[in-house]
Design a protein that fits this description.
The protein is about 50% helix and about 15% strand. By secondary structure, the protein is an alpha/beta fold. A seven-stranded parallel sheet has the order 3-2-1-4-5-6-7, sandwiched between helices.
């Protein structure tokens, strides 16, 4: 396998994916806004003897992404896989959402995915091979309360990939979605903020957060999630939809077959937010 490109690889799942690839001596290129994380990952790659090209870069810097693309292709000649892993969370009652901050979430999660895929598509099309993998989420198919903006961004990523698939597959390019439910990282904790005192949503949001914190304690770990993503990376013909753990597979299946009132009851009960 030639180089694998990964966005958002300084911490969490992205970092674990990169480290697993490094153990197999697969060249890795990627970027993140976390400069310290990038520098420490460079040292790990050097110690592992893995060829790499890592840099500090913001996914919103589209000219920077094109320069990164050119550097990667110059160094490695070609790229076999691009993994769009970069993303930020967003939590809060929709009525109280700061829409300027919502735009930033969409820019990073949706347009960021589009930007990194679009950058490497021409070379993949010319080579008539490659894989484009987007890390989505369970909430990209099952909307959760208090996550309207984040869920919208993941629904958009899934729509992007599903639509693009028809266009790129004739050129030998495969696409795949990875849809984790929960992963035991600090991702959720960074965005969980109670609505202000007096908010009509505060009490239910508090219950949601506490329940989510309980569920995270037994959630899939970043190394476990990374192992699944590496399976998709190395698969000759990856599935379009790829869940990480049994829980998300179960929820996806039930979402397809159960009547909506039952699905709603299960979700509200699961997250302890029944009125």
């Amino acid at each position: 396998m030639q180089a694998v490109v990964i966005t958002g690889l300084a911490q969490g799942i992205g970092r674990e994916v990169a480290k697993l690839l490094a153990r197999s001596k697969v060249p890795v290129a990627g970027f993140d806004v976390d400069e310290d994380g990038i520098e420490s990952l460079k040292k790990e790659f050097e110690e592992a003897g893995c060829d790499h090209l890592l840099m500090t870069l913001d996914i919103a810097d589209r000219p920077g992404i094109l320069k990164f693309r050119d550097m990667v292709l110059e160094k490695f000649g070609r790229v076999d896989v691009v993994v769009s892993n970069v993303g930020i969370g967003f939590f809060g009652p929709f009525e109280e959402v700061d829409l300027d901050k919502a735009v930033k979430c969409m820019e990073i999660n949706v347009v960021g995915t589009a930007a990194i895929f679009q950058a490497f598509l021409p070379s993949m099309r010319e080579n008539r091979s490659g894989k484009l993998i987007a890390v989505s989420s369970l909430v990209g198919q099952i909307a959760f309360p208090f996550e309207s903006i984040y869920s919208a961004s993941k629904f958009a990523v899934e729509g992007l990939v599903l639509s693009m698939r028809y266009e790129v597959e004739p050129f030998g390019i495969k696409v795949a979605l990875v849809q984790p439910a929960q992963v035991s990282t600090s991702f959720a904790a960074k965005v969980h903020r109670l609505p202000p005192e007096g908010s009509p949503y505060r009490e239910r949001a508090d219950r949601f957060i506490k329940r989510d914190q309980e569920l995270i304690k037994t959630a899939t770990t970043p190394p476990q999630a990374a192992a699944k993503i590496v399976e998709v990376i190395k698969s000759k013909n990856p599935k379009l939809h790829n869940q990480i753990e049994l829980k998300s597979k179960m929820f996806m299946a039930l979402n397809r077959i159960l009547p909506r009132p039952i699905r709603d009851w299960m979700l509200l009960r699961q997250m302890d937010i029944r009125v």
